[in-house]
Amino acid sequence: MTVNDDSFTNWKNREEIAESMIPIIGKLHRERDVTVLLHSRSLVNKSVVSILKTHRFARQIAGEELSVTDTLPFLQALTTLDLGPSQIDIGMLAATYGADDRGLSVQEFTAEAVAGATGADKIERREPRDVVLYGFGRIGRLVARLLIEKAGSGNGLRLRAIVVRAGGDQDIIKRASLLRRDSIHGQFQGTITVDEANGTIIANGNEIKMIYANDPSEVDYTAYGIKDAILIDNTGKWRDRQGLSKHLRPGIDKVVLTAPGKGDVPNIVHGVNHDMIKPDERILSCASCTTNAIVPPLKAMADEYGVLRGHVETVHSFTNDQNLLDNFHKADRRGRSAPLNMVITETGAASAVAKALPDLQAKITGSSIRVPVPDVSIAILNLQLARETTRKEVLDHLRNVSLTSPLKRQIDFISAPDAVSSDFIGSRHASIVDAGATKVEGDNAILYLWYDNEFGYSCQVIRVVQHVSGVEYPTYPAPVA
Q1: Is 286 a catalytic residue?
Q2: What angle do CA 21, 42, 75 make, to 5 degrees?
Q3: Which of 37, 349, 420, 442 is surrounded by the most beta carbons within 10 Å?
């Protein structure tokens, strides 16, 4: 047998193991509300090849590839436990087990590591929480995809309705088509049908009512059987408390804005300040995609090194706010053709840092350039630190943060030398540290942070909604603080 034959046989064996993992992962998700992760990446509804690629990606952050032969025993051990709703990272289980010298079996170690999700300590499964989308643009449709994907066992969040202004003939058909196919993010994972007579989109069995209204005051959500819902405003039309309060109609309990909030509206970056949300707070903002990209790594650097001052330059993909060709626009430069120009513009992300990190005394400035790519941006974060350090120390710190800290769902880490923007389309992290581009000299550190300003941000929105709805389940093994 040749070396090539050995490699092929090894691949087929790993394919067989990954194939055996799929029904276990699916059953845990459907029947127990358990989401199986691998280094913060969900394995739910993933194909054989996707599972193998996710294992291989571990080499980018952990330094060596993780094999399905290493993680399968931990997955099998989970099936023997009385698990409640939770997120369990089998990559972290394998890594921490390898470092444990007590001689425990995989079964014993797993039971100990996830003890908080079993027996008397486990969380009881909750009734589904209604969600309404107000607006159905780029972010709205991605949030819809994520809500449908996460419906799982039927508990948790359930998308009940979408509110839009009427768009003419076959409006619901066209909107369903935009949900079904996306030029950047690809095909919807599942099936979509339309019931025109009842004004309903049925996506993977989820019945979603299309409600037509020109203003929030026109809608009584209880008429559609909706109660205590969380409404996600994707329009950005109202950004202060007075405007957003219009959404607090019968059937709506809380309002979440997918844009920076103004005035006293809390700006929340999940992973950084979501714990500050008061239980009785009914209106809040998820800040901007750029704020979500820079605040987690800024916190990670400030906690370890201290930050005296900083500047962020964002190189941002163009958005629907710009024109395809030169035309009138209320802003000075955004009227110029987005696909043909680099466009200097402003960003409020730097000033928004103060809301998310009120204890950070450092002055952060910022500016932005819109460039001719449709998605994925990069933030260049230039920091003056409170102490001198080295490039290796900074990279080791950020790699560890991405693997084991409470920010591991926000911060990803990549060491690929040839990474470019399109590689990060579909990333579920708020920010991806590019190790190869990082520069450190004395007390100065320059971080290059990629982010999918559409999908990564939408994932952050969902995390905030899960938190305020009470269906944000704990992760095991617990992140290292």
Answers
A1: no
A2: 35
A3: 349
> Of the given ranges (165-169, 265-269, 444-448), which has the lowest mean pLDDT?
165-169
Confidence (pLDDT) at 151: 80
Q: How far is CA 244 from the centre of its chain?
A: 23
Q: Please check whether residue 204 lies inside any domain of the structure.
A: yes
> Where is average pLDDT lowest: 52-56, 196-200, 295-299?
52-56
The H or E element containing residue 241 is helix 241-244
Indicate if 346 and 437 belong to the same structural domain.
Answer: yes
CATH assignment at residue 416: 3.30.360.10
Same domain? For 148 and 91 the reply is no
Indicate the residue type of 340: L
Residues in CB range of 297: below 8 A, 6 or more apart: 381, 398, 411, 431, 433, 447, 449
Domain that holds residue 83: 3-121
As to burial, measured by CB atoms within 10 angstroms (0-12 exposed, 13-18 middle, 19+ buried), residue 49 is exposed
The whole-angstrom distance between residue 336's C-alpha and the CA centroid of its chain comes to 31
Give the residue among 236, 244, 166, 162 at the shortest CA–CA distance from 202. Answer: 162
Based on the domain organization, do 213 and 347 belong to the same domain? no
Distance CA 212, CA 82 (A): 45
Q: Classify strands 229-233 and 252-257 as parallel, antiparallel or unpaired.
A: parallel
- Per the CB < 8 A criterion, the answer to whether 378 and 448 are in contact is yes
Phi, psi (degrees; rounded to nearest 5) at 308: -90, -40
How many residues in total does the chain contain?
A: 481
